[in-house]
Each structure stands twice: as C-alpha cells, then as structure tokens.
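Thread title: Can someone regenerate the structure for this chain?

I was given the following input by a collaborator and told the matching structure tokens would be attached. They weren't. Posting the sequence so someone can regenerate them.
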Amino acid sequence: MKDSTRIRRISTAFGAALLVICCVAAMFHAFMPDRAHADEIPATSAYGVRILDIDGGVQQEKAPLSEWSSGNTVSNDLDATGDFFKLNTTRSQQLKSRAASDGAFASIASGDYQLRDRPAVTFSDLQVSCTRDGKSEVSFGSLKVNDTDILQQDKLASGYTYDLPTSKYGETRVYVAQRESDKDSRTTTTALRIEAEAGASEIWRVQLGVVSCAPAETEKTVPAVSGVTVVSPSGKTLIDGQPSVDSVGSATSPSITSTEVPVTAKNVTVRHDADGGSHVDVESFEQIPDTSDIGMYMWSALRVYGLSLDVKADGSSSIALSGGSSGIFVNGVWINSGTDLYTGMAPDGTPRVHVYLNERVVNQDGSITINALRYEDLTGTYPSVILGQVHWSAQDSHEDPDPTPTPDPSPSDGTADDDAVPTGRYAYGLYAQGPSPVSPVALSASGDGAKAKSLSGTASKDEATDGYAGQISATKLSSTVDAKEAKASVSSLLLYPGTAIEVRLTDVSVQVGHDGSVKMTTGGGSVAGKTIAAGSVAANTRITVPGRSTTIVLNAQERQAGALQRVSGVALDDSQGLGAEVRAAVVSSSAPDTTANNPPRGAGSSDAAGGHDLGSGAITSASDGEGGGGAGHLATTGTASLWAVGFVVLCAALSSVFLVVRARRSTRG
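Best answer:
Regenerated them for you:
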C-alpha cells in the first residue's frame, strides 16, 4: 500500500471520528441533566429500608426514597422487598415514604428479617415521622423476636436496644426508635435497626423506617403586602418585594427593573386595608433570559399579564387574570390558570419548571403567606419569582377566621336520637367543589320536595373522577334512600395522590337510620400518611397535617340545634387554601348544589387539557398573533437545544473542510 493511500484513509477516518465526537458532545451538553444541586443535602427525607453487606457495601439502596428541598411534597411507594442471600430473610411489604416542607414520614405494613443462624425479627405497622422543629415519633403494631414480644411502648420516645442470642457469627443487636443529631441540628430517626458484627456474615446492617429533618429556617420580618420578588439561583435577592406596605395604605411602582437580570414589571400596585384585607395588581411582568429575537417564546421566558390577588379579611384568597391581553406564558406555552400548580416538562420528560398559583403556606405562628404566583426553575439556571405576596394573620383582621371544628359530643356512634332525624333524605357517593369540581355522583332521594321527587330512591355509578386534573377518583359509587334508612357507599376513594393530604380508602360506607342512628365503616387505608384500620370509625375523627390549613374528617357529622343535618364518610376541607371541598359517602337533609361548583369551560375546569389550553382571561389568538396551539410547538426549544444544533452544524462544516482539503492534496499527489 502506498504511503499516500494510507494517509488518505487515516485522514478520512480522522474526519469521520471528529464529526461523531462533536455530535455526541453536543447531544450530551444539550440533554445532560442539571447536577448543580446533586450534592445538596435535602431539608427532609425518608425511606423504608436499606441493607449493608458484610464489607459495608450497599446491598439494597434506600427504598422507597423521598427527598424534599423545595416545591411540592415528594412521595414514593414500594410494594415489597425480597431475599438477597441464602439462609437470610429480608422481606417487607407495602413500604411508603413522604418528604415535605413540614417534615418526613415512612411506614412499612409488615416485615420479616432473619440473619444467618439468628432468630427472626418480625414486625407490623411500622411508622416513623419527624418535623422540622426537632420532634419525632415511632410506633409499631407489633415487634417480635421469634415468638417473644419485644415491643416496649413506654420506651419508644427515648429508644432502646435488644440483644439477640449470641451465635457463631458473634453478637447481633436490635436498635428500636434510635435518634441522632448532627452538628447542624439535623435529626435522623430510625424506627428499627438490626446490626451484626462487621465482617461476620453476609449481612452487616439493616435499617428500617428512617426519616431525617433539618431545622426550619428562621423567618425574617416581612412586609404585609409586596409586589415583585426575584431571587437568583444562588439565593441572592435581586428584587426585594417592590413595592410593599407594612401597614394600612397604598403603594404603586410604575416600573420595576433589575441591573443584574433581564426583568421588567410595569404598574404594580399593593394595598393593605384597615379591615385586614389586601390586594395586589400586576399589569405586566417579563423575565426573558434569552436575548435573541425569539427569546420571549423560549421555555426560559416567564411572562405574566393582568394578574391580581385579592385576600379578604377572613384570610380567604383568590387570583384573577383580567383584561383582553391577560395570561401566563411559561415553558414555551400559555398555561391554564385554573390550576394551583403547573409543571413544565423538558424534552426528555423530566420536570423543569413549576408555577404555583394562589399558593398558601401556613407558618409556625399560625399566619399564612399567600403568593398569587410563584415561579421556580427546577434546573437551577434562572431566578425564582414571586408576584403578589400577602402575609395574613388573624390578629390583623377585625373578623374572626373560620374556627377549627371540634368533635361533636352528641350521640353519633349508632345511638338513636329522635331529635336528630334529618327532615329530608338525600344520599350520594361523591361531591367536590373548587379547583377540581365534581357534581354529585350517584345521587338518590326520598321526600315530598320537588327536588326529591325528581330523583330515584337508588342510584349508582361505576366510576367518578375530576378528569384531567387527576386529583379525585372513586369507583363503584352507590346510594339508597327508603323509609328505613339512607345509605351511601364508595368502593375505593383516592384524593390528591402523592401529596401530604393523600386519602386512599376502600369500602367507605355511611348508614343513617330513620331514628337518627349513624354507622360509618371503611375497609381501611390511609389518610395524610396515617393508617386507618378497617371497621367502624368514631364520629368526627379529625386528621390534620402540620403546616397546612387542610382538615380531613372521617364520619363527619353536622348538627343544627341538635338535629342531624349531614353525615359524610370523608370530608376534606381546604376552604382557607385552594377553596376546595370534597365529600364522599354522604347522607344529607338537604339537596346538594348540582351546578354552582362547576366553573365554565376554559376557566380551569377538569375538561380542559391542563397546562396547554388558555386559562380564564388568557391571551387569545387575536392578541399578538399567538395562540395556545401555536406557542405549544416552542415548548421543546431552548438555549441548550439551539446550542447543540449550532455546534453540530459547525462540526459538520469543519469536518467537510478537512475532507475537501485532504481530497485536493491527494489529487495533487
């Protein structure tokens, strides 16, 4: 082979390799997940099980693992775990974990763990939780070594140990309700730990039910009402609540800008009233990091027009988008403003943008921080934004807030009371109003009223949901009303899945006799992370989540002047938050409203395609010539993608030039 031929082949291969390397590098840069915060320690975390082997290596990773640093509650489930080694048992069922702003929670329905040549450690209903004020709780349904009960309820608050019989593999100890704190006062609570001598047998350590909570950050003094706040990814405040008022008055900023980031806001007005109410108007806000001609249409742009927040004296709040050119543009699309949370996805399917609307955060002192809009870039590239913020507390209001209901002491658990017989008879399986409305499902009635006469005495439906919202679902709903009793039931109920207030119950049933006796039963499940046993449920069993205004009541009984008005198997109330109310398995003396809870189509109703349809008052196709559909094609664009395409083109050009030069030289040769 001639030297010139060999050189031509080598140079051709080199040019091709250069092109491949450039393409791979570009694609890697474009779609490589952001790792800026990979090493960040989460504020709260929880997991079900972790196993270390004989050498201290990880045999089973933390699972199911949930970690929270900001944003929504993180929840994960795992059906079961199995054995890893012969002569060792490592089995558990129904593992759950949750991490949120207020704390962390983990639970395991049952477990059986036996290390080689040692007795089995078994347990049921393991639950562990921690809160950011340093508190933690551990509980078990049962805890045994073989058939010996080793559960010491009086020592769960402080923790204790139990030594297994010594085997040829040395000593093995069981740690129960172990608590530790690091130098930053971050607490870690382990419900159960089984630890052998290191290097003795296949398994060294088993950790079951582990939660960690860092102390909550001390809140600084904040104004009563503020307009625009912008904070860099590093935590530096770029715009600090402009304009703002600390007491009764008004303040307006015609224009707000920043020298550090491309942010512009116009005609922002804030007001705090003497009765404790507040109001914020934002005519326009634009954060457009990409300075190109199409920067305002890129995923990184946040544009808001015609946003207002109204907070009444009692603390209730609402937002609106008013005017012919109002709307919210984010992640390359005009979003539906009728939801409380929008999640924008990247081309690879991972979340990269969160927008919270009418967000309500309950503070430790009982006050509530209300944000009209809060924008969060999950990639950590662009600044976070809050538009319209109000700090409400009962002491600032001249009106009393809605009191927290207390359990009704009147006869309720199957006890008859002639004065408590409902005057009308209506029963239904499910009803919801607020962001995820559901008209009464499986509604039946009996009585003399026109409404009652128009309904059948029995009703049923296979399934009921809130549509695209995905927050409410129920199956096999039925109700019956006759001369003897009224009954409503739901075979399965799931509310707000994956959140701190998740309700997951089976066979919810309510019966109200003609004599006023009440019986409510359930097949069991969980409510806000707490296990609900199967069987009868006491009247007005209330479950709350620390740091949240939502209340969930099982067997909720409402009376007026001693008379029973309504019984709900499940009643979820978030009137101080999203304005949501959900009831399941209901018997009532009055007919439910069948129309008022359904907003018009396009105003956040569940029929709309969440996140991609225009919301209430959003920009129409006539304004700026851009509609929801047209803008939707820009959702997958971005500076990284454009950079990748440009880089590939450049590399291709350089490679082509290289090959042409080589060809010319070979020809001359």
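The first helix runs from residue 3 to 31.
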